[in-house]
Specification:
Layout lengths: L1 H42 L3 E3 H7 L4 H13 L4 E4 L5 E4 L6 H5 L8
Antiparallel strand pairs: 1-3, 2-3
Length: about 110
């Protein structure tokens, strides 16, 4: 009986460790994807299309669209439509060096 209790405890502990590990891996992957998107957006002047993101990363078109829509829902990017109807995403918080130099103190506002 004690052996059974010990086995159940080990199994539960093992399951917890596996679940915790998988959550950690998922979080790390999400953080990596976010960094990739922001770097690609920075290279493209703060505005990127789904296709540009997919081409610059290992994401599929569907994955790139999902990630960019997630940024849009969170308010990090704004979805706009180009003249040809393609969706583009503007990351307005990615500033150029000139925009950073022209920034004003919060006390000047």
């Amino acid at each position: 009986m004690i052996s059974l209790v010990i086995a159940v405890c080990f199994a539960a502990g093992g399951a917890y460790l596996v679940i915790n590990y998988l959550d950690t891996i998922k979080k790390q992957k999400q953080e990596l994807v976010e960094r990739i998107v922001l770097r690609v957006a920075q290279v493209h002047g703060g505005i990127i299309s789904i296709t540009e993101l997919a081409a610059a990363s290992e994401m599929t078109i569907s994955e790139a669209e999902e990630v960019l829509e997630n940024f849009s829902r969170r308010g990090v990017a704004v979805r706009k439509l180009a003249g040809n109807g393609a969706a583009v995403y503007q990351f307005s918080t990615l500033l150029s060096a000139e925009e950073k130099k022209q920034a004003k103190s919060i006390y000047e506002l």
